[in-house]
Specification:
The chain is α+β, with helices and mostly antiparallel strands. Among the domains are: 42-158, no CATH class; 165-241, 2-Layer Sandwich (GMP Synthetase, Chain A, domain 3); 308-380, no CATH class. It is built from 14 helices and 13 strands. A 5-stranded antiparallel sheet has the order 2-1-4-3-5. It has a 5-stranded antiparallel sheet with strand order 9-10-11-12-13. It has a 3-stranded mixed sheet with strand order 6-7-8, with helices on both faces. β1 and β2 (99-103) form a beta hairpin.
Length: 399
């Protein structure tokens, strides 16, 4: 047995083996049929699982679960009179998170999934009805809008010519986006074109872009208008809005909050990470957009409320063995970690009740023997945030 071990342990694979045979090896995983189905469907960004049929004004492949910022119509399942469910406004969905409200015409019956022509400036746009009834009323209230604020009109069901034109313009969006990127690079513009959305009648296109500084894109607009023969609208978005439009999977394994339900982006700072005792590691704190994760704000108020029961960081614990300095806390287990002033390599986990007891003893001029007699856990101190500079943290913080 020992001879066999020596035989394998003496062999140095990196020295004796010829690794040239592995250089041309293709280790990429094969592309699945489902992946091809997703990438080849430009209408997936509009919540449609397959390309619409030009002869049908109702889109059979429309699924609300495929949409960004999707809303579930739970009122539809309630056993209520139809007159109670009716509402004169509809929500119409376009590309990605773009959706708007429109006044329904007096004539005609509409349902979720219908392809419709709606008012736009100029011309008309083509979208898919995503919400009807009282759920629209609740969505208006959620956006702090009144019914009178909705002035745009829903014209009619889309005709065959409308759907045919709509499909052809949607097919152009990806190539148009790539072409606009190349043109911007040739003009040496410090900007990134993230997405392109054509209007349904093919007369206008919205170019979504992100840039850190002010960009003079007048020359770019002239070239784009001349090349594509359409009206150009440039719309700047931030990196958070870019992630919301493109979508993705977060480090938690779930769909990004900004593309699934979050609409109001609040400023996030490293103060939230410090309050929650998180490691100041930019790679862990940053989301898909490259900025601090929005979820850092979710529990911030709870932490601030719970921290009121804990002693301030500048309060020291005096013992006969030495003075204890605050290190970190665990609000869930009600534990505070301290280390001695003359030994910061070992930290002691002390229950909150014991910490308050020591503080009361110190106020009375009494000193316990040591921190060890109150500690439930002793461990070596690990400073996870020591290797990261302030510049790295500033880059991911909202400005």
């Amino acid at each position: 047995m020992n001879k066999i071990i020596e035989q394998f342990s003496d062999k140095d694979h990196s020295q004796n083996e010829n690794l040239d045979q592995y250089l041309d090896m293709d280790i990429r995983a094969g592309v699945s049929a489902e992946t091809n189905k997703i990438t080849e469907n430009p209408f997936l960004s509009r919540g449609v699982t397959e390309k619409p049929n030009i002869e049908e004004s109702h889109c059979q492949g429309y699924k609300y679960s495929c949409c960004k910022l999707a809303n579930f119509d739970w009122i539809e399942k309630l056993d209520l009179p139809m007159t109670f469910k009716e509402y004169p406004i509809a929500e119409v969905r376009f590309k990605n998170s773009h959706k708007d409200f429109y006044v329904l015409p007096e004539e005609g019956i509409y349902q979720v999934g219908d392809i419709v022509a709606v008012e736009s400036n100029p011309g008309h746009d083509i979208g898919i009805v995503s919400l009807l009834g009282l759920t629209v009323k609740r969505q208006l209230a959620n956006r702090k809008m009144k019914p009178d604020d909705v002035t745009k009109k829903l014209y009619r069901h889309a005709r065959v010519a409308d759907i045919d034109k709509w499909i052809s313009t949607v097919d152009l969006e990806h190539t148009t986006m790539l072409s606009s990127r190349y043109i911007a690079w040739d003009l040496d513009l410090k900007m990134k074109v993230n997405d392109v959305e054509y209007q349904g009648d093919g007369t206008k296109a919205i170019f979504y872009y992100s840039a850190e500084e002010r960009v003079d894109f007048r020359e770019l607009i002239k070239i784009l208008a001349e090349q594509f023969k359409i009206r150009i609208e440039m719309r700047q978005i931030g990196v958070r809005q870019e992630a919301a439009r493109l979508g993705g999977i977060g480090s938690c394994g779930r769909e990004l909050c900004c593309s699934s339900w979050l609409t109001n982006f609040q400023s996030v700072s490293t103060v939230s990470a410090r309050t929650q005792q998180l490691s100041l590691n930019p790679k862990k704190l940053a989301g898909m957009c490259g900025k601090l994760k929005c979820c850092l704000n979710y529990e911030q108020e709870t932490y601030l409320q719970e921290l009121k029961a804990f002693p301030a960081p500048n309060v020291h614990l005096n013992t006969k063995k030495g003075k204890g300095f605050y290190n970190k806390i665990d609000i869930f287990k009600k534990i505070v970690w301290y280390n001695y002033a003359n030994d910061n390599t070992t930290i002691f986990a002390i229950p909150l009740e014991a910490v308050n007891k020591i503080i009361d003893m110190n106020k009375k001029g009494k000193y316990p023997e040591s921190l060890e007699e109150f500690a439930v856990v002793n461990q070596k101190k690990v400073d996870e945030g020591a290797n990261y500079s302030l510049d790295e943290l500033k880059n991911i913080e909202d400005r």
